[in-house]
Amino acid sequence: MSNETAGELLLFVKGPVIKGDRESKFGEDIFSHRFMFMIAKKEIPNAKVVPVDTVYKKDILLKYGVEDQSLKLPLLVHAYTAAGDRMLVDDPPQIEAYLEEKFKPFLRSKDPKAYKVQLDIFQKFIFYLKAKGEPEKGKLKQLTDELRRIDQFLTDNERQFLSGEEITIPDCQLLPKLFYIRIAGRYYKKFEIPDELSALKRYIEAGDLDESFQDSKCSEKEIIEGFKRYVQ
Prior knowledge:
Radius of gyration: 18 Å
GO molecular function, one term: chloride channel activity
Shape: globular
InterPro entries: Glutathione-S-Trfase_C_sf (IPR036282)
Distance between the termini: 47 Å
Number of helices: 11
Pfam family, one: GST_C_2
């Protein structure tokens, strides 16, 4: 299936919780950012992102003909035939796999280490964010060790991105995670990624320059508001 002949592709994502703010187009959600990033890199012409106010989720989904209210956000809906047959996917790994299988250019990485090197980073950050008192030092070390592993991987392989000079799926996973870590970490813990992790810093700078990454991220205010749940 080519991107040109595919039917309408809808990605329902969490809408902003901060009302009336022009910067807030989407709510904070690490998976939504990943999938919007992938869709933007694939340049799917008939793709549409639908922010959903969770208070009115039922009505919004019904407006688009989605009757199953048990489906979670993010939700991918793809009309894959002219007759209107649709695929509905709300499991994050399956959404990622579906986008990669159905739409070009393919973003998969041939290097399995590019996937593995960043698997634990976000969980370690959440543990650090929640930590208080003496345990905080240990959680900070664990987070820093994970960041150092990524930095070493980039240094050893002399790559701009995790798999080479182009953005692939592991980058669509990692760059949103690092964005959330930078914003929430700075606000709630005064945490900054250490300057000595120079390869990682260059990686972040390269990601920040990518238009698809910028267009698919939520506002910093949404992250700060959403991450209150981890520190209260």
